[in-house]
Amino acid sequence: MCKSEMFQQTKYNWLAVYTRSRYEKKLLKQLEIMGLECYLPLRVQKKQWSDRVKTIEEPLLRSYLFVKVSNKEYYNVLNAVGAVRYVTFNGKAAIIPDKQIEDLKQFLIHFNQEVVVTQEDIEKGDLVKVKNGLLEGVQGEVVQFRGKDRILLRFKDLGYCIHTEIQLNDIETLTPTE
After folding, report:
1. Is 151 helix (H, G, I), strand (E, B) or coil?
2. I need a surface site. Which of 40, 71, 84, 126 has the fewest CB within 10 A?
C-alpha cells in the first residue's frame, strides 16, 4: 500500500475534549489555527450588569469542545494549551457519531423555539425522533418529563441532557434497532 492510499484511509471521528475552565473559545482558536475541524456549541444570552445589558455568546456545554480528528492529530489536541483530556467511556475516547453533532447543531439553531409535549404514549427511557418541524431528524432518549409540556432528552454519546419542548404529534417513538 502506497503512502497516499494510507492517508486516504485515515478515519476521522468526532471526540469531546474536556477543557480548562473558560478556555473553550481559546482552545477552539488554537485548534483551528492547527487546521483541525472543531465545533463549539454556543448560545446567545443577555447578561445584566449594574450599568448595562450585554448580549454574549456562552458555551452550551461548559468545558467541552468537539474536535474531528484521526489518530494522527489525537495527541496534538491534548498538547494544546487549555485541553485537559478527552471524554472517555471504558478508558477510551468516546467517539461521537456525526449524526449527533449535526443534531446538536440543528438544536442550537432553533434553541428557543416553542413546541409542546404531552406524556401520552411516551415513557421514560423511550427513544424518540422528531419527525416534523425545526428539529426534524433529531433523536434522543426520554429521561424525564418536567411538567406536562417539557421533555428532557439525552444525547447518549455526549453524556448530556438537553431540554426542549415538542408537540406530541411531532415525535415518533423508535424501536431499539433504529
Report:
1. strand
2. 71
Cell of 118: 404531552
Q: Which residues of the chain have pLDDT under 50?
A: 1, 3-7, 112-120
Same domain, 91 and 103: no
The answer to whether residues 8 and 47 belong to one domain is yes
pTM for the predicted model, two decimal places: 0.64
Half-sphere exposure of 19 (CA within 13 A, CB side): 25
Task: Assess whether 71 and 109 both reside in one domain.
Answer: no
Output the CA torsion 59→117→137→36 (10° steps): 10
Give Cα separations from 82 to 28, 97, 101 (angstroms): 10, 24, 22
For the chain, report the end-to-end CA distance as a whole number of angstroms. 37
**Are 91 and 102 part of one and the same domain?**
no
- Cα(60)–Cα(75) distance, integer angstroms: 25
Question: In 6-80, where do the E strands start and end?
Answer: 13-19, 37-39, 42-48, 53-59, 64-69
